[in-house]
Write a structure and sequence with these properties.
The chain is α/β, with parallel strands linked by helices. The longest helix is centred in the middle third of the chain and has 25 residues. It contains 8 helices and 7 strands, in the order E-H-E-H-E-H-E-H-E-H-E-H-H-E-H. It has one domain: NAD(P)-binding Rossmann-like Domain (Rossmann fold, 3-Layer(aba) Sandwich), CATH 3.40.50.720. Strands 3-2-1-4-5-6-7 form a 7-stranded parallel β-sheet, sandwiched between helices. The mean pLDDT is 97. It is globular. The protein binds ligand 0WD. The site of ligand 0WD has 26 residues, from helix 1 and strand 5.
């Protein structure tokens, strides 16, 4: 039984047990989903393999979204193992941490392009492959941040990327809706993860959210996971193109 019984999903972006993708993976696994995880490179392979084992998940292989052959390999593996796919979680972003501090205006063309490729285009790249496997409809979920909507200190080029990611969610939702495939994003409040540790003054941002968010606290990966369960299950069957805040309400005051 369970909300996710009979559903199979690929989760991309587990780096360790503090990753937001891990919070989502646990929530949907507890609800009965069958999972596959990817890892980026050998260093993360060692971290992801035991985590996959903990969830009885398939390890679908190495995926670096800047190398399209690795994306093809992962989806080839999913097709061989399952022959189809019900949901996909995209929890991937990257920018040079030297540009996640100081002024946005100083961003370089090279890091701008790389940030956009890894943090924005990769969603479209994986959706292109997932669409072919989601023959009975499906649900795609990505992660965004309030820095897409408003200027947040040090978020810089990543804020520009998240704006483009949110626009991508809307265009992908429009394209894939006729096939019964939904595309949504969770806009999570700040959480101390590996990726977040690259952002300048991150502890201050956490404190600021704690003092100012309506619920007067930050959010956990378990809480984002529970919202993920809603989007990846049929509870949200009429919801697509949505940017849903899981941020203790910060976006209404910030
Ligand atoms: O406060 C936060 N932590 C928030 C994160 C608030 C709101 C949104 N988010 C977003 C992030 O921008 C990202 O899109 O959530 C998503 C997941 O991030 P996370 O859970 O905060 O961070 P982390 O556990 O580091 O996972 C991100 C992973 C990478 O980890 P590292 O730290 O090694 O870069 O994204 C993956 C990688 O596993 N990743 C890639 N995967 C494939 N190809 C690539 C790549 N080129 N680059 C990064």
């Amino acid at each position: 039984g369970g909300l996710m019984a009979g559903k199979r999903g690929l989760i991309m972006g587990v780096a360790n047990n503090r990753s937001i993708a891990w919070g989502i993976a646990k929530a949907v696994r507890d609800a009965g989903a069958e999972l596959a995880l990817t890892y980026q490179g050998d260093a993360l392979k060692k971290r992801v393999e035991p985590l996959a084992a903990e969830l009885g998940a398939l390890v679908a292989g190495h995926c670096d979204v800047t190398d399209p052959s690795t994306i093809d390999a992962v989806f080839g593996e999913i097709e061989r193992a399952w022959g189809g796919l019900d949901f996909l979680v995209h929890a991937i972003a990257f920018s040079d941490k030297d540009e996640l501090t100081g002024r946005y205006v100083d961003t370089t063309a090279e890091n701008f392009a790389r940030t956009m490729q890894i943090s924005v285009y990769s969603l479209t790249a994986v959706v292109q492959r997932a669409e072919k496997l989601m023959t009975k409809g499906g649900s795609v979920l990505t992660l965004t941040y309030y820095g897409a909507e408003k200027v947040m200190p040090h978020y810089n080029v990543m804020g520009v990327a998240k704006s483009a990611l949110e626009a991508s969610v809307r265009y992908l939702a429009a394209d894939l809706g006729p096939n019964g495939i939904r595309v949504n994003a969770i806009s999570a409040g700040p959480i101390k993860t590996l990726a977040a540790s690259g952002i300048g003054d991150f502890r201050y941002i956490l404190k600021w959210n704690e003092y100012n968010a309506p619920l007067r606290r930050t959010v956990t990966i378990e809480e984002v996971g529970d919202a993920g369960l809603y989007f990846l299950s049929d509870l949200s069957r009429s919801v697509t193109g949505e940017i849903h805040h899981v941020d203790s309400g910060y976006h209404v005051v910030g």
